[in-house]
Design brief:
Layout: E1 5-7, H1 12-22, E2 26-29, H2 35-40, E3 48-51, E4 61-62, E5 68-72, H3 77-81, H4 84-89, H5 91-98, H6 103-108, H7 111-115, H8 122-126, H9 168-174, E6 178-183, E7 186-191, H10 192-195, E8 214-221, E9 229-234, E10 245-254, E11 257-266, E12 273-274, H11 276-282, H12 289-299, H13 311-328
The structure holds iron/sulfur cluster (SF4).
């Protein structure tokens, strides 16, 4: 690990200034559950680290609103996962947090930082001698012909097929959440569904955020979609593992008929992935097991597999179908 300077501002404007003054190799740090790992692996080598845990106004969250839920970026994953209203009225959000990482990590990690975690692609994390366009642009992609069991089926490119690893962002994508950010040029709001970008020819670019921009809040619109929702995660073991496939599903039903459906896929794409065509197939029809199965198949219609990950197309479609059946029970 290379030496770095450490600063701990106490206000948001101070934090923004500290990052701007440090230049492009400066990083924000909150819970530290991701950045420290990457620094030890020499994937990240910041010259300055700006600790934002002293920004008190970003630690709270409010789930009492009738129009939106508001989460400060530094709210802890474990606290949000255990919030009574979230568990009752937005179970997909609570489940996406409680199924992520271990309890110890959830106690440390922030809901803002969690959105920005980087891929678990082993070639990216382990470095030389493996080629990796994300770590070293232009070097190639060892995963294309290598061990790619966990790599992306959707949204990949010749340059990169790394999966976005998060769970929380998948549930937020289903609920059309928004993210407030601030940087040296001011504040703006980014739709969660537009926060992450596909790799195309520049896999080192993972979000639309500028290097100096800080996530301050996550906001989720309150709607009748909340209660009939679930985050269904399939993994190699039932604890402390990343998704082989996952689906965040939310429904608004009128009797047995679907009035509105949301489906977001995790563990299978290069970014949080809304399956909008699959959503459309459900609207105006009874939600039967057959309709759910068909929607799952539509969700993976554009999937492109590599040598070792083909099995996850059917697994992903079944995950969507099962999630729809689980959500239907919660109306
Ligand atoms: Fe690197 Fe992406 Fe290829 Fe993995 S899939 S080796 S992160 S370029």
């Amino acid at each position: 690990m290379q030496p770095f300077t450490y600063v701990k501002p106490s206000t948001v404007p101070e934090a923004v200034l500290a990052v701007a003054a440090g230049g492009p190799s400066t990083r924000f740090i909150a819970g530290g559950t991701s950045l420290y790992d990457l620094m030890k692996l020499n994937v990240e080598a910041p010259t300055r680290v700006v600790d934002i845990t002293g920004l008190k106004e970003l630690h709270s969250f409010d789930t009492s609103g009738s129009r939106e839920l508001v989460f400060g970026a530094l709210a802890r994953m474990s606290d949000v996962a255990e919030d009574g209203r979230i568990k009752r009225d937005f179970p997909a959000l609570a489940e996406s947090l409680s199924k992520a990482a271990s309890q110890q990590l959830r106690n440390m990690a922030s809901v803002g930082g969690n959105l920005l975690q980087r891929t678990r692609c082993p070639y990216f994390r382990h470095g030389e001698p493996f080629a990796c366009n994300k770590r070293a642009p232009g070097s190639g992609c060892a995963a294309q012909e290598g061990l790619n069991r966990g790599h992306a089926l959707l949204g990949g490119s010749q340059a990169c097929i790394a999966v976005y690893p998060g769970d929380w962002a998948i549930a937020l994508a289903a609920f059309d959440a928004e993210v407030d950010v601030i940087g040296q040029h001011g504040q703006r709001t980014v739709a969660l569904n537009g926060l992450h970008v596909e790799p195309r020819d520049t896999p080192q670019v993972e979000t639309v955020l500028a290097p100096d921009e800080l996530i301050t809040r996550i906001r989720v619109p309150v709607s009748r979609l909340g209660r009939a929702s679930t985050y269904h995660k399939i993994r190699d073991r039932e604890s402390y593992a990343f998704a082989l496939t996952s689906a965040a599903v939310a429904l608004r039903l009128d009797g047995q008929t679907v009035r509105e459906a949301r489906i977001a896929l995790g563990g299978v794409a290069t970014k949080p992935w809304r399956a909008r065509e699959a959503e459309r197939t459900l609207v105006g029809r009874p939600l039967t097991a057959e309709a759910a199965k068909a929607a799952g198949e539509v969700a993976f219609r554009g999937a492109r597999s590599t040598e070792h990950n083909r099995f996850r197309i059917e697994l992903g479609a079944r995950t969507v179908a099962d999630a729809l059946m689980i959500a239907r029970q919660r109306v």
